Give the backbone structure.
Amino acid sequence: MELMEKAAYLKGLVDGLDIDMTTKEGKVLAAIMDVLNELTDVVYDISDEVTETVDLVDAIDEDLGAIEEDYYGEECCCDDDECDDDCMYEAVCPSCSESICLTEEDVNNGGMNCPFCGEKLEFEYDDDADGESEE
């Protein structure tokens, strides 16, 4: 039973009891039923707004994904199984022309072997005055 059905069921129970709504207890019960009905309406309004918001965020996410794919090419520079959130830099191997994700540790170490062709890659890392890095 959904929330609105439960509220309607309770209202039906109260109506079926033939409670005198002019007594203290009747007035309290009537006030509780009014609050319950208002809360039910608010919950349904919020639920509708959340559904609309989720749909809008999903549409924005899809649009952003398309823009990222157009701008960056592939979604990620590595295979989905190998995708690493630590990937901070991207480089292209001069031997095999494959895109390689680099972590900050890879750059700080000064080099690595290309995971695709095994070529030894070396990196130079300099901090400039703005805190940006050059490779």
User: Anything to note?
Assistant: Residues 129-135 have pLDDT under 50 and may be disordered. The CA atoms of residues 60 and 127 lie 36 Å apart. The helical segments are 3-16, 24-72, 104-109. Residues 3-72 form one domain.
